[in-house]
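Example 9 (inverse folding). The structure is encoded as follows.
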């Protein structure tokens, strides 16, 4: 496929590994504040301050964020919730931006598997995309851009459309405006 579209049933995979000692140190240093920042209320009731269990949840959230293609910084820790089913199997419940991103990708379900031992926790997540191209901007990208970033994003979109239409001359006419160009520097001046 050269048009950038995603074939139906395209799979996305995410994996993460973390040292349990990193989580243990954060729990000792920041206490409940750390777990409140990362875990939902239901997750905190399950984890109960256990470093190995917390590390497993951390790795699972990281793996799920990779399946969604944004990373946790683009979504938020508590937007991804790892539930424990009555069978003991972990299950993913999405909220907020993570839920919107999954909808954007046509991803109805994300499967996750977690393992941990005394030193490491590892998680792998798997989802199936049914919509979207090779890359999709997050659904709330417009809300998080400043004016310069909006102009750049609009220019990228115009360039993509022009390239798809095969218009090299039009690409040349879409050169940056003076307002988008960086300020000239005096000779010998250092960058900030």
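The amino acid assigned to each position is listed next.
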């Amino acid at each position: 496929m050269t048009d950038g579209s995603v074939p139906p049933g395209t799979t996305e995979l995410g994996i993460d590994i973390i040292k349990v000692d990193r989580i243990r140190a954060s729990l000792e240093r920041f206490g409940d504040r750390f777990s409140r920042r990362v875990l939902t209320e239901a997750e905190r009731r399950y984890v109960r301050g256990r470093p190995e269990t917390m590390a497993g949840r951390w790795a699972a959230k990281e793996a799920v964020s990779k399946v969604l293609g944004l990373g946790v910084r683009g979504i938020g820790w508590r937007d991804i919730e790892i539930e424990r089913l009555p069978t003991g199997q972990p299950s993913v419940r999405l909220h907020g931006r993570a839920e919107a991103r999954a909808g954007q990708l046509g991803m109805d379900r994300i499967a996750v598997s977690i393992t941990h031992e005394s030193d490491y926790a590892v998680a792998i997540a798997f989802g199936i995309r049914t919509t979207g191209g090779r890359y999709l901007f997050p659904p709330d990208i417009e809300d998080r851009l400043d004016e310069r970033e909006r102009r750049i994003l609009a220019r990228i979109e115009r360039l993509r459309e022009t390239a798809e239409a095969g218009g090299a001359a039009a690409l040349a006419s879409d050169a940056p405006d003076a307002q988008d160009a960086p300020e000239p520097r005096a000779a010998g001046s250092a960058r900030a």
